[in-house]
Amino acid sequence: MGKRKKSSRKPAPSRRKDPLETNFTCLFCHHDKSVSVRINRKEGVAQLLCKVCDQRYQSKANHLTEPIDIYSEWIDAADAAEKEASTSTRRTVASSSRAPRAPSVDSDD
């Protein structure tokens, strides 16, 4: 067996992997880079915390979970909670805001 000839092709440039963001804008206080995400893969827990308004969110995590995933889950959970609150408020208002009965036209009052 002989030696292989070296290829005349240039080696592909190494792709540098830019790290993903771990600090985000808060949904509630709107401060930039105030929300940080920490993932404990060993325990399977991810925590999100706003340093300004102290909003917190906790979720399950696995070996594929990234901080942006937790931030997206937080946004979805906040939207769902807001939608649920507005739906329950509408029901309460609609049921309690019935107009009083109009007086009868035939009445002599």
From TrEMBL:
GO MF terms, alphabetically ordered: RNA polymerase II complex binding; zinc ion binding
Subcellular compartments: Nucleus
Main location: nucleus
Entry's Gene Ontology cellular component terms: transcription elongation factor complex
Coiled-coil blocks: none
Low complexity bias: start-end ranges: 86-109
Similarity comment: Belongs to the ELOF1 family.
GO biological process, one term: transcription elongation by RNA polymerase II
Transmembrane segments: none
Region (Disordered): 83-109
Matching Pfam families: Zn_ribbon_Elf1
Reported function: Transcription elongation factor implicated in the maintenance of proper chromatin structure in actively transcribed regions.
Protein name: Transcription elongation factor 1 homolog
Keywords: Metal-binding, Nucleus, Transcription, Transcription regulation, Zinc, Zinc-finger
